């Protein structure tokens, strides 16, 4: 238990996240949640320009914080770099980069963060 980092489950506007109790204990691989664009500022999808209305709802991409229609933001992916518990909504712009990062994270970062050097450097 010497490498234990106290974590907490928090509810953010984007979903449930597991984060370190202290900012100084966060992994260097974590990226912060983006600032969401307020709904009232956008009347068209930021990708395809479809006008929002009663039947076309607004959806925030959890990675970039921009607002899209369902067609441009219907993919749900894991976002381990943002500590989300469940897969979250990702726009078509962020999807390719997120998939690349998830593959890298799964193959390399998990192994690196379990190594002795990492534990030595980040052991607080």
UniProtKB/TrEMBL annotation:
Q: Which GO terms describe its molecular function?
A: zinc ion binding
FYVE-type domain: which residues? 39-99
Q: Which CDD domains match?
A: FYVE_ZF21 (cd15727)
A Pfam family that this protein carries is: FYVE
Q: What PROSITE patterns is this protein classified in?
A: ZF_FYVE
Keywords, sorted A to Z: Metal-binding, Zinc, Zinc-finger
Q: What protein am I looking at?
A: FYVE-type domain-containing protein
Give the organism the record lists: Ranatra chinensis
